[in-house]
Amino acid sequence: MAEQTDTAPDGSALGQGAHQGPRHVAIIMDGNGRWAQSRGRPRLFGHHAGAKRVREIVECCPSLGIKYLTIFAFSTENWKRTQVEVAGLMSLFRRYISKEMKALAAKNVRVRFIGDRVRLDAKLIQLMDQLETETAQNDGTHLTIALNYGGRDEVARATKRLAQDVAAGKLSPDDVDEETLPKYLDTHVLPDPDLVIRTSGEARISNFLLWQSAYAEYEFIDTLWPDFTAEELGRLCRQYGTRDRRFGAVKT
Hints:
Elements: E1 24-28, H1 32-37, H2 43-64, E2 68-75, H3 83-106, E3 110-114, H4 122-134, E4 142-149, H5 151-167, E5 195-198, E6 217-220, H6 230-240
Parallel strand pairs: 1-2, 1-5, 2-4, 3-4, 5-6
Helix pairs in contact: 2-3, 2-6, 3-4
């Protein structure tokens, strides 16, 4: 009997390649504040430590076969934190982009931002635009940073744009299906994540990539983000490779 080859939702073949590592990894980087508090330091100290950890994880992606890395930096719900912490995070984002721009470009990393930029300050938006432009021609690791991002907010914004196209006669209501909406999402140029990791021991997805992660594998680990290493990411990628991903089908 010939070996059966299944097909993933995006049309890619499974079967012999089904036990390879993940091509797209998405990470909910949780635990910065608790990491700092456990050391008697303010929460922002943990966020700075977490930002440094991002560099190591990005740099190890090529050796692990990870082409796309998406990280959750700031959610639409994070505005509920104290004004001091929010202001500190915004300052950290500006500093991180300014400091890492040349290194990311030199390492052939393509950077994109997803999320609603309306509430972000003008200087931060300018830096985000500049980083995207500076790395637009790179074809190495695709790093996507979710900033002021929420899955429900993304779907709502996408639906609004879709509805506007229907109202303008650019799209027929009869043509709207589950293949149509993703074209209006922030992530429309990216493949869906294969593996979603959340650090810090919390077992929830916190409004992250709700549509895109419908068939993702999940790993909830106890490690706090500043302690998350390339070695642990490698272990999770190898573990992913042992999973039997059927996408709703039954193998015979």
